[in-house]
Amino acid sequence: MVITGAKSGADLFSFLVFLVFVPIIGYASMKLIGLFDLVDEVLDAGDALIVRNGDREERVLVADFVDVNYTDMLGLPRLRLVLRTPSQFGNRITFCVPRTFLGFRPTPVIEELIRRIDTAREEASDAR
After folding, report:
1. Which residue in 3, 20, 67, 69 could disulfide with 80, CB within 3.0 to 4.6 Å?
2. What are the boundaries of each domain within the chain?
3. Phi and psi torsions of 53, nearest 5°
4. Nearest alpha-carbon partner for 54 in 102, 89, 20
């Protein structure tokens, strides 16, 4: 069996179109599902979260979060925290979280964090 190159200009054109559009579609898909805004690590420090991304680290108070969003899109469970004032990571901090056995609900640790953020947010609004 002999393998030869493209037999016509149309085959070469199709191949070049494929080479150009597949990376574009892959990049757009990853951007759409939010893989580019994930931080490396988030640690619980009681009244604050320690956020690490690369060589940068910041301590963010739990009371500074104004919204919490848990999603399990495409089997990638993520928690997105929206900040009252932007940090060095921006006004949103997104990170992957551990899965539960069935994967439909956040883990008890995440539910506790969401409850703590809601409580701190209510206390901050009562103090105003």
Report:
1. 69
2. 6-36, 41-127
3. -145, 110
4. 89
pTM of the model: 0.68
pLDDT tens readout for residues 50-83? 999 989 999 998 888 888 888 877 677 888 899 9
DSSP code string of 59-103: EEEGGGEEEEEEEEETTEEEEEEEEEEEETTEEEEEEE----SSS
Query: Which tokens is 122 given?
Result: 């209510």
Between CA 39 and CA 60 the distance in angstroms is 14
| Measured distance CA(72)–CA(30) in Å, rounded | 15
Residues 34 and 3: their CA atoms lie apart, in Å, by 41
Which pairs from 82-89 meet CB under 8 Å and 24+ separation? Answer: 87/51, 87/58, 87/60, 88/56, 88/58, 89/39, 89/51, 89/53, 89/56, 89/58
Q: Residue 72: how many CB atoms within 10 A of its CB?
A: 15
Rounded distance between C-alpha atoms, residue 46 and residue 69, angstroms: 20
Q: Could you tell me the fold of the domain covering 41-127?
A: PH-domain like (2.30.29)
Query: Scanning the structure block, which residue is given the tokens 């883990």?
Result: 107
